[in-house]
Amino acid sequence: MSSTLESKLNPADAVIDEICLAGDPWAKVVKKGQTLRIVDIEGNQAVDTIFYSAADVAEHYSLTRTIQAQGALYLTMGSVLMSSEGRPMMTITADTCGRHDTLGGACACESNTVRYAIEKRYMHSCRDSFMLALSHSDDAGSDIPRLTKRDVVSNINFFMNVPVTPEGRLTFEDGISAPGKYVEMRAEMDVVMLVSNCPQLNNPCNGYNPTPVRFLVWDPV
Amino acid sequence: MPTCFDTLTPLARAAVPDHATAFSTALVLWEDTLPGGAHWSGLLRRGTTLRLTDLEGRANVSALFFNQEEKTERYNMPDTLKAQHTAHLTRGHALYSDMGRVLCSIPDDSCGWHDTVCGVMDAAATTQRFGEANYQQHRNAMHRNGLDGFLVELGKWGLDKRDVVANVNFFSKAVADEAGRLRFDTAHRAPGQHVDVRFEMNVLVVLSAAPHPLDPATTYAPTPVTLTAWRSGTAAADDVCRRHCAENDRGFINTERWFL
């Protein structure tokens, strides 16, 4: 349930090649048939990601549908990311990391008060990045529909390792990603991709040092 | 010093009972039997506990929880699991909202494991697994599915498919191996098992008693569950959920501030 495969795609051919700085949000439309690559440039960076159907954003990535479809918890080579309507959204076609989390969710300043200290309320968090991005999602010139807090559903954490033990414990482990590791996936429908490049400083999910990530998109060959 | 229960002001601490209230029949407010496959929704107020009892030992009760006073605040599986370093729910656990508050908690549980990562089945999966059984031929013995049960009840409160998040599946256990592959534990359930869900806020509860998506049963035969609402009061200072971990101590402080 964990394997790796390198890609043959050439970054020089990409139609989108953008850097998302540490702690920033990022949103983009990826068209059916295009291939998306996310690069963990410096290593150990959690990339909190939600996919929506571009045709109807009420249809969104569903961790429970994805887990049901593959009968397993982790995302890896060949995993199909399923929508809330039971339709394939993305298929992982190349992966040099080998395992990605979909149980850990996104950090929020409210959950930080629970997990770390009431006084941590004012640190930057993924949910605040999501709220900022979706508040601007339908600004003039944007091709992304209006999204609201209700649309912030459970996300994928690319490059994050959150093993579940047979006894039912949830653990946060470091160290399966590394500088330059990437994951690549083919869009099975037109999707809106909403990202928070995680700013969490209170646990090792970003190696205590959030760093930039790179997004590349290729048209179908 | 970081904020914790012991550093709260005297007025804030006075809002918390000293000791837990044990169940007794004199405290029961109402009782109902949820037939297998059926769905229900309602308001459970702060200080009320809903006891779910699996009468025949094959029940699955899928559940969603919303803050009735601000329904965009809802049960959040990842925050619940992360705060308590668990991948399942049982006695001592709190069920967190996305706003860092405890919607409800589990002070008593004879079952030991409730799933919260596998979701619910939809109509297509239910037909594929069990075959077609429609209302026209089968009346109220028709096959019902967890997703449509949720959607029917959510619609009554102005909510819809955007509000179907990862839910709790009471009485169901799915175990992951090292590779993350899931196995449904059919030996886990037993007749008469119960779980107490104590509400720490005024909570819109949505229930669906349709089969669990990983239950390998090929015959559609969901079984009934007794719902017993009783006046428990809120989590006391010595409560098993509040004292479970430092994270829950803080979660209950966040929750109580909503009502102070």
* Low-confidence runs of at least 5 consecutive residues of chain A: none
Helix content estimate of chain B: 10-25%
Rg calculated over all Cα atoms of chain B: 18 Å
Total strand segments of chain B: 12
Summed up:
The complex is a heterodimer of chains A (221) and B (260). Helices cover 11% and strands 29% of the residues of chain A.
Task: Give a written overview of the molecule.
- The complex is a heterodimer of chains A (221) and B (260).
- Chain A has three helices and eleven strands.
- In chain A, the strands form two sheets. In chain A, strands 1-11-3-9-7-6 form a six-stranded antiparallel β-sheet.
- Chain A has one domain (20-218).
- Chain A is mostly beta strands.
- Chain B has one domain.
- Chain B is 19% helix and 26% strand.
- Chain B has six helices and twelve strands.
- Chain B has helices at 10-14, 77-84, 123-130, 135-138, 146-155, 246-259, and strands at 28-34, 39-44, 48-54, 61-67, 94-96, 102-109, 168-170, 174-176, 182-184, 193-199, 203-208, 225-231.
- A six-stranded antiparallel β-sheet of chain B has the order 1-12-3-10-6-5. A four-stranded antiparallel β-sheet of chain B has the order 2-11-4-7, with helices on one face. Chain B has a two-stranded antiparallel sheet with strand order 8-9.
- In chain B, β8 and β9 (182-184) form a beta hairpin.
- The longest helix of chain B has 14 residues, at 246-259.
- Chain B starts with 9 loop residues before the first helix and ends with a helix.
- The mean pLDDT of chain B is 97.
- Chains A and B meet through α1 and α2 of A and α2 and α6 of B.
